Amino acid sequence: MHLKWACIFKVNHLDNGLNSVQALKGVTPLSYLQRFYTMNDFYSPEQQELQDQYDTRKLAERLQDIIVEDQVSDQHQPFIESRDFFFLTTIDHRGYPTCSYKGGNPGLVKVVDPQTLVFPSYDGNGMFLSLGNIQGNTKVGLLFIDFENPHRVRVHGDASIMKNDALLNEYPGAKMIVQVKISEIFINCPRYIHRMTKLETSKYVPQEDKETPAAQWKRIDALQDVLPSCDQAIADRLGGVITPEEYGEMVMNGKG
After folding, report:
1. Residue 241 is part of which domain span?
2. If residue 82 lies in a helix (H) or strand (E), which one and from where to where?
3. For residue range 207-237, what is the model confidence (pLDDT) as tens digits?
4. Cα–Cα distance between 7 and 216 in angstroms, integer?
5. How far apart are CA 122 and CA 234, in angstroms?
6. What is the 8-class DSSP label of residue 176?
7. Are residues 19 and 117 located together in one domain of the fold?
8. Is 116 left (phi over 0), alpha (psi -120 to 50) or beta?
9. How many distinct structural domains can be found in the chain?
10. Are residues 147 and 226 in the same domain?
11. What percent of the chain is predicted at pLDDT more than 70?
12. pLDDT tens across 151-174, in order?
């Protein structure tokens, strides 16, 4: 039998118990109840075991109550949309996490709605580690950091790849759009973030009405016979082929 509820019950679970139930006028309570049961699984037994060993179980549960949300807040959105890079974790077919740096212009990640983020996939090295992982396992993590004014936000969610989305028009040079449906988002203590200053934007970040420089690694001699057809003239255009050692030296000198 289906029951329709006339109000929302906001559930606060503190110290492993339901200490308060606050009735609010509005829609159904299902989203709140679903969030409670989902968030109740936030910690694994192994994490809880360590919390017990170091007497931090109650602290961990209180922090979960205070900082972990299931959607982007008014505090999160301007921070996320001001970033010009983030770190993306995906899970490969062997169960290994793959961590990848993603860079672009400020606004690289857009908040489409409180539970949805999108970001572009630009030209890469052809391995498709992150996107291939997403096609096999949708679970992802995103880490946003401000090194100038130490602050960070973590996001967990499920990602999907969109190859013909209208949002491609908002990202010059993008090949695909990645959409993330948020499960959890929370701030993280910034005390160990080293304060750094940005020197310049990478010249390889695609810009509107401007040709993007070709990647120098596409000049490496050992790769010429396996480059896709669209990249086979790059070596000649950039001054000829180079050895892996020569490319390594370029990278060490900041010219990669």
Report:
1. 216-252
2. helix 76-82
3. 998 999 999 999 999 999 999 999 999 999 9
4. 60
5. 17
6. E
7. no
8. beta
9. 3
10. no
11. 84
12. 999 999 999 999 999 999 999 999
Is this model's pTM higher than 0.85 or not? no
Is 216 in contact with 256 (CB distance < 8 Å)? yes
Q: Are residues 176 and 62 in contact, defined by beta-carbon separation less than 8 angstroms?
A: no
Kindly state whether residue 196 falls inside one of the protein's structural domains: no
DSSP three-state, residue 52: helix
Task: State how far the Cα of 198 lies from the Cα of 192, in Å rounded to an integer.
Answer: 18
Task: Give yes or no for a contact between 100 and 129, defined as CB atoms under 8 angstroms apart.
Answer: yes
Which residue carries 């489409």 as its tokens? 112
Angle between helices 45-53 and 57-67 (to 10 degrees): 120
Q: Decide: 83 and 108 in contact? Cβ < 8 Å.
A: yes
**Do 72 and 182 form a contact (C-beta atoms < 8 A)?**
yes
**109 lies in a domain?**
yes
Determine contact, residues 10/32, Cβ cutoff 8 Å.
Answer: yes
**Does one domain contain both 88 and 43?**
no
227 and 127 assigned to the same domain: no
Q: Are residues 80 and 145 in the same domain?
A: yes
d(CA 85, CA 82): 9
Q: Which two tokens stand for residue 52?
A: 């017990």
164 shares its domain with 101: yes
pLDDT of 30 above 60? no
